[in-house]
Design a protein that fits this description.
- Helices cover 45% and strands 15% of the residues.
- The longest helix is centred in the C-terminal third of the chain and has 29 residues, at 62-90.
- By secondary structure, the protein is α+β, with helices and mostly antiparallel strands.
- A hairpin with a 2-residue loop joins β1 (28-34) and β2 (37-43).
- It starts with 14 loop residues before the first helix and ends with a helix.
- A two-stranded antiparallel sheet has the order 1-2.
- It has 3 helices and 2 strands; from the N terminus they run αββαα.
């Protein structure tokens, strides 16, 4: 399959490729270059919805995230207390 680029930089995506990738009128395409070749990806109509569930493989629950945040907060508070104690002893 081949296409020609116009003087305006436009080209026609062959029908077989449009059909295979689900490219329709007003589809959004993301272009990049990889190893000297152009790479085209079809962007979903709802990128946030398309990303939902993308991190399920991490197996983290809300409880896990809250516990991690609690531990981070305790660590931050301990560091702040230590810094305050050092400041008071040097003043």
């Amino acid at each position: 399959m081949k296409s020609v680029v116009s003087v305006k930089g436009q080209t026609v995506i062959p029908k077989e490729i449009r059909d295979a990738l689900g490219i329709e009128s007003h589809s959004r395409l993301a272009w990049s270059i990889k190893d000297g070749s152009a790479v085209v990806r079809v962007m979903p109509d709802d990128p946030i919805g398309a990303a939902m569930g993308a991190l399920k493989h991490l197996k983290l629950s809300t409880a896990d995230l809250l516990e991690e945040r609690r531990l981070d907060k305790e660590k931050d508070e301990a560091q702040a207390d230590a810094a305050l104690k050092r400041w008071r002893t040097t003043s």
